[in-house]
């Protein structure tokens, strides 16, 4: 994907170790199915974790950084055993339940540090968070505002009408309801 293309272009040494499909397909939206899927993934995960351990021992990284829930769990299992510090970049607002409980327990293992991309994410992870918050950034030098009139034309609204939108996965906790409430107030206010 694009990240690997960027690494190659920059001449950065990297390895791609694909997560076994059975494990990758687990969904926190269906806990029972995820548990069953997890059980079915055990044979493949044993081999995967062995390969990951071999790769980490060979590369000797200064830090193992993860930014996805399954990767957080895998890193908490593999890296501390091998004495590598782990940094989770926590980006999800999880409901209280087995996934969150497991991650909280794993984060207490030695050498696992957690940062969050927002205060809301930090609070959802830990009610009394002592997490460092590093907001997602935008490289202003790479951003160029260009007029896009497709939506204006499609909706038959003047090109001078400002547009405000939200982009993201439709999921609880992502703020779409709050966005619609805010937009409704803005419309009412003119």
Q: What does this 3D model show about the protein?
A:
This protein has helices spanning 2-10, 21-24, 31-59, 69-78, 98-107, 119-125, 150-155, 176-188; strands at 64-66, 86-90, 112-116, 132-133. It has 190 residues and is of the alpha/beta class. The protein has a four-stranded parallel sheet with strand order 1-2-3-4, with helices on one face. Strand 3 (112-116), helix 6 (119-125) and strand 4 (132-133) form a beta-alpha-beta unit. Helix 4 (69-78) runs parallel beside helix 5 (98-107). The chain is globular and about 60 Å long. The model has no long low-confidence stretch (mean pLDDT 82).
User: How much strand?
Assistant: 5-15%
Tell me roughly what share of residues is in helical segments: 40-55%
Number of helices: 8
Question: Which radius of gyration do the C-alpha atoms yield?
Answer: 21 Å
Low-confidence spans: pLDDT under 50, at least 5 residues?
none
Strands of the widest sheet, in order across it, are 1-2-3-4
Distance between the termini: 44 Å
Short description:
This protein has 190 residues and is of the alpha/beta class. It contains eight helices and four strands.
Protein traits:
4 strands, 4-stranded parallel beta sheet, alpha/beta, globular, 190 residues, 46% helix
List the helices and strands and how they pair.
Blueprint (H helix, E strand, L loop, with lengths): L1 H9 L10 H4 L6 H29 L4 E3 L2 H10 L7 E5 L7 H10 L4 E5 L2 H7 L6 E2 L16 H6 L20 H13 L2
Parallel strand pairs: 1-2, 2-3, 3-4
């Amino acid at each position: 994907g694009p990240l690997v293309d960027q690494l190659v272009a920059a001449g950065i040494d990297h390895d791609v170790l694909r997560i076994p499909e059975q494990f990758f397909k687990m969904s926190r939206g269906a806990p029972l199915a995820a548990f069953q899927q997890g059980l079915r993934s055990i044979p493949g995960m044993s081999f995967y974790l062995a390969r990951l351990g071999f790769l980490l021992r060979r590369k000797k990284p200064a830090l193992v950084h993860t930014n996805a829930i399954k990767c957080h769990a895998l890193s908490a299992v593999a890296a501390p055993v091998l004495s590598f510090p782990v940094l989770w970049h926590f980006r999800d607002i999880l409901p209280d339940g087995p996934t969150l409980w497991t991650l909280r327990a794993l984060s207490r293992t030695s050498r696992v540090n957690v940062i969050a991309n927002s205060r809301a994410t930090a609070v959802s992870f830990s009610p009394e968070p002592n997490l460092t918050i590093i907001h997602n950034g935008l490289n202003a030098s790479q951003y160029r505002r260009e007029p896009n009139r497709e939506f204006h034309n499609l909706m038959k609204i003047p090109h001078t009408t400002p547009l405000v939108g939200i982009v993201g996965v439709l999921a609880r906790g992502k703020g779409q309801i709050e966005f619609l409430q805010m937009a409704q107030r803005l419309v009412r206010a003119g």
